[in-house]
Amino acid sequence: QKADSVQMQAFRNISSSSSSAAGFQPRKQSGHRLVSPPALRPQPPSSSLFSDSLLGSKQPLTKRRRKLLLKSSLVASSAPTGQEEAALQLARMQESRRRLLTDICAQYQPDVGRRLPSQRQVSRVYVEERSRLLYCEVPKAGCSNWKRVLMVLSGSAASTRDIPHDAAHYDNHLPRLSGYVRAGIAERLRSYTKVLFVREPFERLVSAFRDKFESPNSYYHPVFGRAIISRYRANATRAALRSGAGVTFREFVQYLLDVRRPVGMDIHWEPVSQLCSPCLLQYTFIGKFESLERDANFLLRSVEAPANLTFPDFKDRNPLAERTSSSITQKYFSQLNATERQKAFDFYYMDYLMFGYPKPFSDLH
């Protein structure tokens, strides 16, 4: 319990100071598509996700700063220094992620206004009233298990392991922010903890492709597969055109990059910068799939979730398939030429910038 209090207070203190300094207010996102200038555009960091620069090493955690951060009756007891340091490091990580997002938004979307978002812009945001959480669903970044956690927090289920995949996604246990009246949306955006979990963009794309096109799928094969094969495969067989099965990764990327794509965008590969409107909603907590359980459990302790609730570590779709890793992602992208990789990077460029992911290939610019 002492360790939980340390985490909770460290997160609150740093989150509060960071938000106040940034002057966070709900603002409206520009309707124009963001296109990076052809030259002198800033590059994503070449270092790892958790480099010293992202941890704020230029402002070392001095004894005085630690005392200020932990000055609270909740942590005035003899919590172990190691636990304090771990909690503070995680809180500082959140501060650095928010600061990076704020800086990128200020540079690329300075015209974002102060009006409420539209219902469409919050249509992917789920509401958990008991813990006062808003969670934007990013497919292929742990969203199934996050929905399970929210259902347990709301009292809809006793355990995350009791919730089948389809129940988490299709049974409407969780309200969406878009279902509230404007005043309700504004109040929740102002006072609730706004949560976003992201994933390395190319890895998320490959994960979506493997899940939707390499495994049997009664929706994506006929709806997307048929259209993709018809448009991008020369001399396609009747069987392929009829079933939509067997889409190659290159064909899938051709579809993704086609401004006149034969079938619309899908949330499983839509850029997070568009799906969750991060510059507009200004998230309180930014987690990463690469540190999913650590980040998620830190958040759960910070919002005083039940002590026995931890983030699930199981995979319920294609459980025998190997998780999409950086090495698997490299293999898929090696099927593309340099021009195709560059265009794919341009497509996800804002995601790379906003969330501090390094360039996945050295020849990208």
Automatic annotation (TrEMBL):
Provide ranges: composition bias, Polar residues. 1-14
The question of whether Kinase is a record keyword is answered with no
Query: What keywords is this UniProt entry annotated with?
Result: Carbohydrate metabolism, Glycoprotein, Golgi apparatus, Membrane, Signal-anchor, Transferase, Transmembrane, Transmembrane helix
Q: How does it sit in the membrane?
A: Single-pass type II membrane protein
**Record bears the keyword Nucleus:** no
Q: What's the Enzyme Commission number for this chain?
A: 2.8.2.-
Per the record, its GO cellular-component terms are: Golgi membrane
Q: Where in the cell is it found?
A: Golgi apparatus membrane
PANTHER family from the UniProt entry? CARBOHYDRATE SULFOTRANSFERASE (PTHR12137), CARBOHYDRATE SULFOTRANSFERASE 8 (PTHR12137:SF7)
Protein name, UniProt field? Carbohydrate sulfotransferase
Gene this chain is encoded by: CHST8
